[in-house]
Amino acid sequence: MSAVAEAVSDAAVITRRNLRKILRVPDVLVFTTLSPIMFVLLFAYVFGGAIGTQDTGVGYREFLIAGVFTQTVVFGSTFTGYSLAEDLQKGIIDRFRSLPMSTSSVVVGRTVSDIGINVVSLFVMSVTGLIVGWRIRTSVLEAVAAYVLILLFAFAISWIMAAVALTVRTPEVVNNASFIVIFPLTFCANTFVSTSTLPGPLETFANWNPVSSVTQAARELFGNVDPDAPVPDAWPMQHPEVYTLIWVVIILVVFVPLSIRLYQRAASR
Using an 8 Å Cβ cutoff, are 162 and 81 in contact? Predict the structure, then answer.
């Protein structure tokens, strides 16, 4: 068996291990799915009346859902870092080191298995969104493309969180460090309000924020934008799918080898 085939096989084993761990600790899955439900209900019923349709071009609940999708999967990527740091802290990585397995399989298996959590979260949020009035107004293929784009972006962010975890090595620090960065990144975007409502410098930042491009691409693919609404002058908002894919490629090219190298260094200690 070639080295690549062995690495893929080992990563598949680690992926199954991580998914089984979630099934054995269902509390993780329950609280992971409750959070996006709360966000949908909170913004739809509590803030939705105040924000209304101002500068969105469509009903706020339809405008909202793509933003909640994006924010949830980005926040969910912290689970990758937390779980990896927890394995390091508990010595599980030392057990893996003693096995004849690819050194990259642990990190690859961790990031791939977390796609499963994001799929469950997106399904739960979609059902909740349909209940509160969200609708997909495009074709099935376009809707699938929106989900795939969101999952690809989440997968890329998971590799950043893996690198953070392998650098700081404690779950608590991973959570705190991630929150400091992710919280402003997901709110200083078009996730919950149009970027045109933001003051000048923040509007510019939000228009070039990849979180905004993922959200905008999902809205367009779901058909949740008004075709007559003005499009921001910023290039990322005019080509959100392309801009998102550029960011996904850049993140993966940088952080996949970096995370694997950091894991090899951590496992050799």
Answer: yes
Nearest to 102 by CA among 13, 6, 15: 6
Closest CA to 209 of 195, 228, 225: 195
Q: What is the DSSP letter of 139?
A: -
Measured between alpha carbons, how far is 152 from 70 in angstroms, rounded to an integer? 11
Phi, psi of 134 (to 5 degrees): -75, 145
212, pLDDT greater than 90: yes
201-209: long-range contacts, CB 8 A cutoff, minimum separation 24: 204/234, 207/232, 207/234, 207/236, 207/237, 208/234, 208/236, 209/185
CA angle 101, 103, 109 (to 5 degrees): 85
Pick the more confident residue, 119 or 148. Answer: 148
> What pTM, to 2 d.p., does this model score?
0.88
